[in-house]
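re the bet — no i am not wrong, look at it urself. input seq straight from the record:
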Amino acid sequence: MKRSVLASLTWRVLEILLWVNAVLRRHGARVAALTALLLLAASLYQFSTEASLLILEIEVFKDGLPQPNSLVYLFAYTPDGMRFLRGVRVDGRGLASLTLPFGDVIGEWVEANREGRFKCRGYPSIVVAALDQELRYGGVSAKPIETLSPQGIFYLRVRVNLTQGVPDANRTGGVSPLLDWDLIYAHEEWRRVNIAKLTTDAHSEGFFIVYIIESVMSKSAVFSWGLTFSFGHVWEINGPFNSMDTLTSKELLGVVDSNQVGYASMRLLFRFERWRLKGVEPPIYQYWFYIRDMDVCSLDTVQGEDNEMTGEWQFYKNYTGKGFDAEDILDIIWYDTVQGVDGKLRVAVPVALQSWLASLNHLPPRLAETSVDVGAYKAMAIMFHVWAEEGYYVDVDWYLFERTSYSWPGAYMRFKTTPV
């Protein structure tokens, strides 16, 4: 990091020396010395007040092997959505190093938060998409930048795994030139989706509590959402992608009697983007879903939208029922502590939203017909309270969503009883 900053300053000093040399030849030493001091002062002032540098070390690989001469594309997450910044080609080892000015993007977020454009405080992030040199495979990696400071130097190491095949691959039959991306369609809207779900049977009862804590009160309560992407074949979740601070707290209690299903749902601002790589035929597209904002005050026990539950129930624990009085409670299960969850939960991209995008030809049928989710990381505290009728065992299970190219846990639980 220090070497890169030093290199920037050294380059500026060399420019100054060239100016000094020219002035020296024309006007003499005194004028040259004064010119040098003025130029150096102006340079240092500009560096100290405007420099917000993002230093990136990027590695592209596939199946554990470096991908030489791959094409890397940088996008910034801004208050208006994604913005294409530039492309770069990695070297023969699959590596690239570059320094970007990032102060403008941070400044846009500062201004958007000041104006109250979002219900949560937003932060910038960087997204790196990569294609191999023959445009056969692609991958995406995202990194949040959790700062709103207009000055500073931020170092990120980004590893991009080329996990997806690109439809109609091998267009060029050789090394592709470095091209730009165009945003050809974007859409965002608020949708109420399920966050948690509890299902009981005839001999069990329970309730759930969902806590969302104001992030200003606890930085551990910062939300992080994933970026769901595709090059046209399958969906993948990558993240954490963007972070946001909640500006209010909310607690929700849902009581679920026997033979009932209880829901916790919330309004989220979904955004869809479709990008096209310039100058390539047949065209190469990227499709992105992500969460832009959330309405904490909308958290409620009404049923929200969802998608197909393809996956398996995972056994968590077994208990012996005692009855339904308060003192008969069997356990209080924190969702975060369930084995394999690690603070993750998924929310569904509503089926109706996918279908609508497909009707406008912005999603190919293959992607429109595949259930897709957005991942959340350490997003909220969720507890499940367990009761069962005396004379019955109760199994507590949680749900693991299995998609074509990823598995993701959901805060969905069920109580299933059997006689003692």
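see?? The longest strand covers residues 181-199. told u. also The mean pLDDT is 87. so pay up
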